[in-house]
Amino acid sequence: MNKKEWKEEQERVDFVLSEVIVREHDLKEKLGDVKTDVINIRKNFWEDVTVNLDNAEEAAETFASIKQQAELMSESERRHKHDIKQLNNLHKLKHSPYFGRIDFLENGESNSESIYIGTSSFVDQTGMEFYVYDWRAPISSLYYDYGVGAGQYDTPMGTIAGDIKVKKQFIIKNGKIQHMFHTGITIGDELLQEVLGNQSNSEMKNIVATIQKEQNQIIRNEKGRLLIVQGVAGSGKTSAALQRVAYLLYRYRDTLSADEIVLFSPNPLFTSYISTVLPELGEENMQQTTFQSYLQHRLGSNWRLEDQFDQMEYVLHRKEDPQYAARIEGIKVKSSIQFINYIDHLIDSLSSSGMIFKDIIFREDTLFSKAKIEKYFYRIDRTIPIPNRLHIVSEQLLKEVRAFELNEQKQEWVDREIELLDIEVLTKVHNKVEKEKQKESDVFYQYEREQELLRALVVKRKLKRVRDSISQFRFLDVTSIYLNLFKKELNEFMTHWPEICSTTVEQIKEKFFLYEDVTPYLYLKGKLEGFQINTLIKHVFIDEAQDYSPFQFAFIRQMFPRAKWTVLGDFNQSIYAHSNTSSFLTLETLFLSSEIIKYDLKQSYRSTSQIIEFAKHIVQASIEPFNRNGEKPKVIKVKDKKDLILALSRRIKIKLESYGTVAVICKTKAESETLFNALHKELDVRLITKDSAGFDSGVLIIPSYLAKGVEFDAVIIPNVSSSIYANKNESKLLYTICTRAMHSLELLYHDTVSPLLLNCPSTSFEKQIE
Ligand SMILES: Nc1ncnc2c1ncn2[C@@H]1O[C@H](COP(=O)(O)OP(=O)(O)OP(=O)(O)O)[C@@H](O)[C@H]1O
């Protein structure tokens, strides 16, 4: 790139920055005025409305005047918020106004236009000339989709085609161009090399300057209702998801807000890791939750619930338990499509018989027997869906409660309850009757009337629980219906069904749910009582989707019936016992095939090509590594188990000389705790647990399943001996751990190395003895 070109580009940067400074100054002044406006409107709110409630007409006028004033206030507040957002965007532009340029000659035009692309738009005072285009603007997609030559982009008015004459990339820091390249379709290997070569961070970074073509298609897709992205480790699935949220918020800014989008993430650590990306792009964060907290919320506080990490610990760590094989089979069965069908079949049959109800008790007597409720239920037309039939039953019961209530007011127990009433209640009733008495002037009437009101009040209060439980269908015994599933033979070929049944019944009777039971139970409950649907959510994002069972998908689908879905996962990283490829297939059955769009990302960006060349053989994955070089992974043999700690400590110290974040990724919580206890006196290490809400740089000791979705400069796997990673079905776990490493990967073992590494060619790693 010649000096002249560089000089011209720097002059343009200087010019844009000078305009940014002017705009910033104007905006700050305006912001001051708007703020004063907002404060004044708030202060003078009641002075500026005339309150007169003398008659209906005056009251209506008062109401209109309050409404007008409130609208004025919310409009000023909205303007204030908007201006603050703009000011924030200007701050960012001042540092680095843009990262790309294309010169585009639209078909039929004689001059090409230079389009500069940055994180937000910046337009001249007239609003006619774009100094910078937002990366999400329709024209900006040219930058991500094409190299120099023919190109086209879609706009709401149709497709615009033309010729890209120039395509350049910039790195601008503090207003100075640091690098400038002419590039092809793959947005600058040079820039990607630089970005990916940086050290990791406890916060994920946005990728808008280097979005790749296949990622851009995911980010901007607007067609399907279900977008499924299968992508290899480090292919940018999470990044694409987050930039997609930013894109949707921009594209539908008049109709979509951040709280109408929900993202299900694998754990709280991941939630905190990704939480800075959207604010960095000038957008608010979407709602974020884990499926676990969602389940807990739905189940209510009466139940204890095992979480998915405890289930995982059991699966990884309790192989000696005599019930182990049965539990594993139970987890698989209860997450399977076969079990959904089994439950659906049961639900169908419940239409004509088999519903289990509970008596409704009032003051220790049966108010409505389960037999009576059952009779009411089954006399309703069978073609009516079960939740609607329950609703009809509940209406009938409530009607009868009303009749019962009137009768009950005459009972003796009511007198005793009246005596126990608070003085405030008695006074209130007394005053009420006193007011009425002025019209009647009858002392006898007053006593009778007070008693009448107090009786009504006492009975109403006592019946409140009954009414609530009727309206909430608490007369339905979902737990017993669920447990009935475990009385029948599900599959004659299943080895452990009797044990699965007895454990399930035992646990649930103790009011404890194993993780694998919660979703089927809630699914059954929802199907019977009607799901508490959320119609506000317009987009559901599910990251690490390979870890969801078909049941969990079916359940989430019921919860958000109106939402569009973006689901991202990698079959090779399915680490849970229930995981199988059929999850995605089930998900697809929940949508019409015309509504589904699928993408397959093969290129990995996170790790050096040496790490990928080694790790891919653990699961025989087909991955294209990004061309970034580093050291080969090291497989290090130590003398014995005792020496492992010493060697680990040495390796950590060496890694800390070059890297900011070194993660020691263990298989289980117990292994992590043991290492932490052995190391923390000598080294500054941090133990990550399922409740950790974030991490800083330094040395982290972390169990495998909590490292999902995150990345570290250097990863050390402290023990890949054959005694630890022995089973074939743990290869995905080992692969997932290895692919958390960006620049350096080391694996330690004693005695013999895990058979899971036997497929890695000897040329793909370095052997070392410590
Ligand atoms: N186009 C890109 N430009 C720059 N960096 C990128 C790009 N795509 C991905 N990356 C980087 O690659 C790393 C992996 O990305 P991300 O975590 O989104 O991948 P993933 O597919 O969700 O990974 P995994 O499934 O292994 O958790 C991140 O550091 C991300 O910033």
UniProtKB/TrEMBL annotation:
GO cellular component: cytosol
Biological process per Gene Ontology, one example term: recombinational repair
Residues annotated to bind ATP: 231-238
Top-level division of the source organism's lineage: Bacteria
Documented EC number(s): 3.6.4.12
Residues in UvrD-like helicase ATP-binding domain copies: 210-608
Pfam families: UvrD-helicase
Any GO MF annotation of the entry: ATP binding
Keyword ATP-binding: yes
Keywords: ATP-binding, Helicase, Hydrolase, Nucleotide-binding
Protein's name in the database: Helicase IV
Encoding gene (name): helD
